[in-house]
Amino acid sequence: MKLTLLQGNVFEQLPKIESESIDLVITSPPYWELRNYEVEGQLGAEPTVDAYLNNTIRWVKEVWRVLKPTGSFVLNIGDTFVNPSRKGINNENPGKTCMEHVKNQQRCGAGYGLGGIYKTKQLLSVSSFAYCRVVSETDFVCRGEHIWCKPNVPSPIRSRLKHSHEKLFWFVKDADKYYFDAKAWMKKVQETSNKRYENATSDSPHVDNIGLSPTSCYRAGKGHEYLKNQDTIEHSWRIVPVGAKQGGFELEGQQASEHIAPFPENLIRPYIQSLCPHEGVVLDPFLGSGTTMYLAQTEGRNSIGIELNEKYVEYAKKRLNWGGGLGVEYEEKA
Predict the structure, then answer these.
(1) C-alpha to C-alpha distance for 305 and 204, rounded to whole angstroms
(2) Which residue segments constitute the domains of the chain, with CATH numbers given?
(3) 62, 6 in Cβ contact below 8 A?
(4) Are the CB atoms for 78 and 127 separated by under 8 Å?
(5) DSSP assignments along 44-66, one per residue
(6) pLDDT digits (tens, 9 = 90+) for 37-58
(7) Are 42 and 55 in contact (CB under 8 A)?
C-alpha cells in the first residue's frame, strides 16, 4: 500500500499526477465565502461565485485527466446565502469585512452592490451552478445526486427554514464501464417489497440497463435475482453524532477533529468501498484533516492527498501514523 501527501496549491500539485492513474476522486473543496482557512491562495475567497466556479472547473478538468476510464468522481459542495453581516474573505486583507471591501471599491463575493443574483438574503445554489458547469464543460456523466442530511446543525436564523443538508454528486468518466460494487449500498428489504421485483425485466423503464464492471454485484439484466432479497440504499441519508438516537437508515459520525469542516467517516466509506477496487488508488485534492486517506488505508486502497494548509497536513499525518505503518510506503512532496 502506498500513501502520498502533496502539500501545496491544487493547481500546482494536480498536474504532477500521472494521467489515467486514479480510480476514485472524492473531495469536498472549500465552500465559497463561508470559511477563512487563513492560507494564501485558498479557494473560496474569490470575489464572485463565477470566479469560484471558474477555479472549480480548472481543477475538475485535471480530475478528468487523472481518472482511469473506469473511474468515478464524487464532489461534495455546499451552498450559501447572501448575508450583509457576514465577514467576507479577502486574500489581501482577511480581516476586513465585506462592507469595508465595498468602501474600498473592491468587489466582494457577498453581493454588496453587485446586483443580479446577489440579492440580500438570496440562496446562492452554488452546488447547482457547479453541477451545471461540470456536465456542460466536461465529458463527465452524473450517475447520482446524493443528499447528506445533517439533523443537528445549529442555526440562529428564524426568518427561514434551517439549511441542514448538502449534496454529493457522483460523476463517472465512462458511463458504459465504470467500476461499481453495489454491496456497500445494499440492505435487506421487507418480504412484502419482494413483489416489486417479481415481474421486473431488463427492459423495465425502472432498470438502468448499462454495462458495469465485471466485478460489480449488480449487472444489467442480471440484477433482479440479487435484488430480490436486498435493495440499494436511498440517495438520501442522515449522519448523526456518536451516541445519538437513531431511526431508519442513519450513519453514525465520528468525534470532531481539529479541522473546522471535517468529512464524517461513514459518509464517504461506502463510496470508497463501492467505487474503488481493492489495491486501487483514491485521490482527495482538498485533503483537510485526512479522513479520505485514513479510510482508504483502512479499506486496503492506495491514496493520494493534496492539502494547502501546513497545519492540516501535520494533523493528517498523525491520523495516518505517518511513517510508522508496517508494509506501507510513504511519499511526501511539496
Answers:
(1) 41
(2) 2-76+125-185+240-333 (3.40.50.150), 80-124 (no CATH)
(3) no
(4) yes
(5) T--SSHHHHHHHHHHHHHHHHHH
(6) 677 778 888 888 999 999 999 9
(7) no
Cell of 2: 502506498
Query: Shortest CA distance to 155 belongs to which of 88, 81, 213, 99?
Result: 81
**Nearest one of 78, 155, 80, 133 to 110, comparing CA atoms:** 80
Question: Which pLDDT tens digit goes with each residue over 240-289?
Answer: 544 444 443 444 444 444 434 456 888 889 999 999 999 999 999 999 98
The whole-angstrom separation of Cα 271 and Cα 184 is: 8
Cell 488508488 sits on residue: 281
Q: How far is CA 160 from the centre of its chain?
A: 26
- Non-local (6+) Cβ contacts of 38 within 8 A are 94
Would you state the cell numbers that stand for residue 184, as one nine-digit string? 456497500
Whether pTM > 0.85 for this model: the answer is no
To the nearest whole percent, how much of the chain has pLDDT over 70?
65
Measure the CA angle with vertex 272, ends 269 and 273; round to 5°: 85
Instruction: State the DSSP code for 250.
Output: E
The CA distance from 33 to 54, in Å, is 15
Q: Which of 11-20, 67-76, 166-175, 192-201 is least confident? A: 192-201
